[in-house]
Fold these 2 entries.
Entry 1:
Amino acid sequence: MHEPSFGGSEWLYLKECLDSTFVSSVGKFVDRFESELASFTGAGHAVAVVNGTAALHIALKLAGVRTDDEVLVPALTFVATANAVSYCGATPHLVDSEESTLGMDAARLRAHLVSQTEQRVGSCVNRATGRIIRAMVPMHTFGHPVDLDGLLAVAKDFNIAMVEDAAESLGSYYRGQHTGTFGLLGILSFNGNKTITTGGGGAILTNDPELARRAKHLTTTAKVPHRWEFVHDELGYNYRMPNINAALGCAQLEQLPGFLESKRTLFERYRDAFAPVPGVRMFAEREGCRSNYWLQTLLLDESIGGRRDELLAATNAAGYQTRPAWAPMHTLAPYSSCPQASLQVAESLQRRIINIPSSAVLAREPSP
Amino acid sequence: MHEPSFGGSEWLYLKECLDSTFVSSVGKFVDRFESELASFTGAGHAVAVVNGTAALHIALKLAGVRTDDEVLVPALTFVATANAVSYCGATPHLVDSEESTLGMDAARLRAHLVSQTEQRVGSCVNRATGRIIRAMVPMHTFGHPVDLDGLLAVAKDFNIAMVEDAAESLGSYYRGQHTGTFGLLGILSFNGNKTITTGGGGAILTNDPELARRAKHLTTTAKVPHRWEFVHDELGYNYRMPNINAALGCAQLEQLPGFLESKRTLFERYRDAFAPVPGVRMFAEREGCRSNYWLQTLLLDESIGGRRDELLAATNAAGYQTRPAWAPMHTLAPYSSCPQASLQVAESLQRRIINIPSSAVLAREPSP
């Protein structure tokens, strides 16, 4: 589905890391990776952590999410988006997607909030549950930016903090600005199947220096700096990215522009190849957006959506790795009783999406 | 304080890992590392995870720790032991250490439980708080095994599950059996300062195949195996060790016997060197125990305990990294109001412990 490519300085940096013996929680590659991530994305600050899930957990805590809050999450997402809400003791409140972005639908969300919530002392309260809706976590599906203008307006109008789940969208832009830098905080993932990988890894992005300082503190066991004393001034987490994984990240980041170019080329080839096929189309970036085309996405027409599993079985049997979108959150046991809006678009999309082989390296093979 | 040593197959295995492109959540080194850890420790099963803190979190969940429970934790430990309890929504209940092991004192714990708890429907209840004391987490301090016979008897008599925090004691044995394999579950850490390192990493040990299966499931987002579907049947965690870190672990594990021998030699040199110095002694393994001598430990007499900080300042200023034991949990803001037993031994030890440079590589230098 998505194979990483190690054709750059990976060896050099890993060797430098081992030779220095600083493979773990001390070492220069973590600082360098954070600085280069901030520079690439244009975020004020980046804090490298063990994975995207950990990044989301801490970003939500820093956005003020507490026990018994609710957090708006797309029903159509990887389960980590909802899990991070659970780790805060809060409850995901599932909302619908839109066909043009595959992500949270701002207009439908606004209508839902108008009908289901009220403002109390500057907070948005779900009237049915009495709980505060503290944050929203739009996710840029398969690298395609959500409708940020629309969602930022909803966030502002209803007093809801935005944490952007940009796990899939490193190298994706909305009106020329990198995804993950619009909300109060954003997060990235460098899992093995992502556009660049650190083995396992993630990052928290923010433009607020105080939130960045807090993110670093909370992800490093909340230890107060001292040459030898072990004082921790609040409940912290062991979420720091090891230096050896950051070394891999630095080498991968150098190749990101090339990876993005290859993935765009691959999209164009797929688009042209599928153009004559009735009932399917390659999902393409919207106007004003630039997608990283992380996972190449075929969208089936409603009329043939019922044949999705047949196509998945045939392609996998033939040796081509294909996959559907995730099972929507409300169909999973741990989230089946969460508060939810109407989810008809998410359900429809889930029946019709097929991701097809997306590795950057595929674009380097000659066209048939 | 403790520098890792990479003189084995680290480079070979990292290269193999990168060449295979399986650096992340799929790959053979994770399976191999788990199998070799089980073999080395004699545990029935080992599950590799991102770090020792994550291992403790999941081990406590599997031991049945739930919101509003209490968990017995030594006051004198690294903060992760207490933090993992907090992640479960439970409260650490702090107990005292004994001078002869630096770990939980079984006799004092038994007396505390006799006076402060009662049995209700097969559970040990703290009378003062009304909460169930679900588990105990003895920690093998600096690699020295606790009094497992005494603590296992307390656990049995009071219906309390034992989760062993063996983060520091890979290669340490109690009556010939590896630490971390006595309790219902045990955990290891492979942080950069540990006896072997994976950059960042940890493992859950257990002899119970069903607990091992549950540990693997919970640490891999509770995903139900399927060729392409994304179904998660409970709240899971993204705690899997990346394959690239496991590759490092396999190479390190091959060198563990040599590291242990070097650390023992280093202890013997320190012991002989400090023997003539009045008021200090090197902390040595107890009869029936074999320590990995992870961190070499000087114990000051009470009479000169007041000079600890002076010694720390002088040695650090002279370029020798030394450190005290951790600030006891009840002196940290997040744990200052936890239930606690009398902690006088832990407090005394904390005033008198100094850890001195402990890297295995130091033993290879010629004696003066």
Entry 2:
Amino acid sequence: MPAPRRKRRRPDVAVLRVGHRPGRDPRLTTHLALAARALGASRLFLHPPDPELADRIAAVARRWGGTFGVLGVSSWKPVLSEYRGGVVHLTMYGEALTSVLPRIRRAPRLLVVVGGAKVPAALFEDADYNLAIGSQPHSEVAALAVFLHRLLGDTPPSRFRGGEQRIIPQRRGKRVLAVRGRNPG
Amino acid sequence: MPAPRRKRRRPDVAVLRVGHRPGRDPRLTTHLALAARALGASRLFLHPPDPELADRIAAVARRWGGTFGVLGVSSWKPVLSEYRGGVVHLTMYGEALTSVLPRIRRAPRLLVVVGGAKVPAALFEDADYNLAIGSQPHSEVAALAVFLHRLLGDTPPSRFRGGEQRIIPQRRGKRVLAVRGRNPG
């Protein structure tokens, strides 16, 4: 008799941004970090470190809830080699999302690596999967967003417990609720 | 007798970026334009105009194929009022994607509006739908990418006919094919 179907556990997904340029990329990497958080990743490893950016994201997490954080790393290679889980490198040169997705769906832990303008060639070798969200040039923010959404689906509000405020979805206009004490999610 | 099932035609999706700041946002709006193109939108209306950015995107389209282009507009209101189709405003304050999607799936033409840091209040009123990709702060690039991907699915290579080169997806490394003469897509 087959085992009863169980609800699949959400995998833990961490993101590693390689080749951030603190002087030049602050807004782009901020968007990347916020998208990672909003779409269900648990944390962002940032190479090289950018304490100001990490502080800004920490302030967002305090206000809007959840445990997402940015961890600066001075070398990206150890993050990959020490990671206990599958490593997915997002690149326009890789295999199509639809062909990779069935192979990684059951992984309990995934590290998603996104590069900037210049990506070290070693990344293609060190990753378990090189995955393309379409074989056209676009944006690492867009690629990460589509990947997380396809892998994790909608992010449940319970990911964002403990914030100071939350949005009540509206047809028109804005409605933001101040959360007093504990946010039930 | 019910009519036989026909393959649904892909809707035509245009994007309108409101409140671009040419001095400050060039990279972010470039990412937005490239994501719009790669994920199947037909064009980007850019407010206010930014000829340099439009030229950069035109160069990408020449090299990588397709007919996507950036059209500068000095006022965004007429774009909405003259648009013959549904208007979807992406905002973290809006209704959830999953509740809006069934209502817009059959639209033949859609205009997707994305704001920057400050969004004019009138947009909430003038749009047919205010749609949130999660009720958390993140990125207009990420929101647009998830929306286009959910609405249009994978972008067929035929969208990118006529380029000078194309990528052959690989497990490792990069493979780019120079296209001589007409690209069959």
